Amino acid sequence: MKVLLDKFKEVSFSVLPITLIVVVLNFTVAPVETDLFLRFLLGAFIIIIGLAVFLWGAEIGISAIGSLMGEYVAKSRSIKKVFIIGFVLGFLITVAEPDLLILANQVSSAMGGAIAPNLIVGVVSVGVGVLVAAGFLRILFNVKFSRAFAVIYGIIFLIFAFVSEEFQAIAFDASGATTGAMTTPFILAMGLGVSKLKGSNAGEEDSFGLVGMASAGPILAVMIMSLVFGADKIQGTAEIFEPTRGIFGPLVEILGSTFLESLVALLPITLLFIVFNFVVFKLRKREFLRIMIGMIYTYLGLVLFLTGVNAGFLDVARLIGAKVAGLDNALIFPLLGLVIGMVVVLAEPAVYVLSNQVEEVTTGYIPRKLILATLSIGVSLAVFLSTLRITIPELKIWMILVPGFIIAIILSFFVPPLFVGIAFDSGGVASGPMTATFVLAFTQGAADMIPTADVLRDGFGVIAMVAMVPIIAIMILGLLFKFKTKKEGVENV
Amino acid sequence: MYNKDISYSAFFVVVDKGKASKILEESKKIGVKGGTIIYGTGTASGGLLHLLELYEIKKEILIMVIPNDLSDRLFKLLKEVFHFEKPNKGIAFNILLKEVMGNVCQENIANITNRSEKMGYEAVFVIVERGNADDVIESAEKSGARGATVIHGRGSGIHEKGSLFNIVIEPEKEIVFMLVESSKTNTIVSRIKEDLEIDKPGKGIIFVMNVEDAVGLVE
């Protein structure tokens, strides 16, 4: 039982900070209705249980499958085969992601229904598939991270110049929505599996970076699509926000829909694993069972977590955002953004998985806590920048994103390769379901309130920030490590 | 500079994950010059938990090469500060070393005990900075070793004192370990010592343990 208890303890420490902040806000500047507040507390409790179960399941289920698949890919020496398997795995894991469908619906309505949501899901999944395959090839051909990312982001910003501001924001948001709680552990583990076969030195560096590659897929896919279909302006308008009432009603309702959504999300990869197991892996019964039990944990945990987040956190975050932005003191909103960013990232499941993997792969050389602290600072700044963008209409999204990514690319040539991979991965990882619901709702609520802001244009794009700043933050950590690891007193002897 | 009068031992501590760094830090305070930490897993027994797949416990193994007379103080430290006498706190043991080489105390140490005449096997451990394991294996194989195992770990010696926001950075290490015939130990060890300049400060450490018996080795 100690294992599970330890997990609960750890998870509580990551969820309690954000809970505490909402409680404090509720009793000070932004009181919300009692039923919403109670539902929020209940949601936080469900999230803790869900996250603990999910993480345990991810470790023995989804990560194990990803690792096996990665090893299989690395063993197949034919380039064509590596590309096809990489593509199929990337496609399959994305096409079922529930967050993506929600986003596709939003995009579809924003484009005036010109494109069906399913087509958008398909296009984005193809994007992820191609880039996962490209990521595999990068590892096998020993192309440097810094070069690969320079090329990819070079292409992105070339297209970026021709895309409308709305779709610039949506493209980056799509990236955040796709690399979610389920896909990230899987892609991370695939990278680990591929790199395992590469021997001691290159292997460690190659364990990371695949998520970073994969999260560029949706950005490219959405931007290219908006160009092809000629959608230069968003036509839809945001619906008027109305919080759902009641304590248990909304919880139960969302529980029902996430039950099905999560099942759909997990099925393709589970079935693929079962087929692969009979044809290729041929695991012993004991190992096979352990992975299947892991998948059940993953499923149950995911359902609880998403229910808690969607039912408990969404409404409260939006209300708080609106209330705080409406306050006379204009400083409170950006400052609160700073604090919320700092704590919200701790409750991201994928952040948990990544930081653990970093510690594991480096045998503790890069401690988990240091990664968490760095991401915390990074996301904090990201949310802060987003609040500035909402309050200052002249500040466009490209003014932050373009210089940010240029800095990131330049840094990547000086930072140890291990950190480059981790940095780009953490960009995809930091923008998970917690950010997508809580922070996005918080900033949209504020955008509702501020007359010069536009809910669609300013509210979106938050995820783009959250996906960018951590990249720079982790690279700076890498530089610090580079200088600090030098031996002392050796030259004197 | 070789200090042949002192005998050395390898001190092993097995604890739950996350605790080894603290123990290494405290050990350094009483005179230990450095240590290497590797990851492992242990299992706890229990029927139902096994069925639910809830049993894996992550461990850390801390290896320190110490002058023999320090071991009593280390055991005392583990009892008094880390309460090893209570259950589930961890285990510790030390093994007398045949030979140590490397700049551990800013002075070279080597050849402590006389080689036994009996033709047996010995276990050679080489701890070097990450990335150097391949070189170790290459020079070992050139001088007659048949194979080696590499373990990934982290650790710090007296030359590594980096820290970031109060978190100690322990650089990554590779531990190469091989079973070799006693008659070949000397050649292999001195070859590795020369190729990797182990006796220069901060380059690594080699130690040799006596092996009573061994199977699975192909002549």
Please give a structural write-up:
The complex is a heterodimer of chains A (493) and B (219). Chain A is mainly α and 493 residues long. Chain A has one domain. Helix content of chain A is 80%, strand content 0%. Chain A starts with a helix and ends in a 9-residue tail after the last helix. The model of chain A has no long low-confidence stretch (mean pLDDT 83). Chain B is an alpha+beta fold. Chain B has two domains: 8-40 and 54-108, Alpha-Beta Plaits, CATH 3.30.70.120; 116-215, Alpha-Beta Plaits. Chain B contains five helices and eleven strands. Chain B has helices at 20-29, 47-51, 71-80, 133-142, 182-196; strands at residues 8-16, 35-43, 56-67, 91-96, 99-102, 121-129, 149-156, 163-164, 167-168, 172-181, 204-211. In chain B, the strands form two sheets. Chain B has a nine-stranded antiparallel sheet, covered by helices on one side. A two-stranded antiparallel sheet of chain B has the order 8-9. In chain B, a hairpin with a 2-residue loop joins strand 8 and strand 9 (167-168). The radius of gyration of chain B is 18 Å and the shape is globular. In chain B, 37% of the residues are buried. The chains are: A mainly alpha (493), B alpha+beta (219). Chain A binds chain B through residues 1-4, 56, 60, 200-201, 204, 290, 293-294, 297, 360, 362-365, 367, 369-370, 373, 477, 480-481, 484-490, 493, and chain B through 21, 37-39, 44, 49, 52-57, 60, 103, 106, 130-131, 133-134, 150, 152-154, 158-165, 167, 169-172, 174, 201-202.
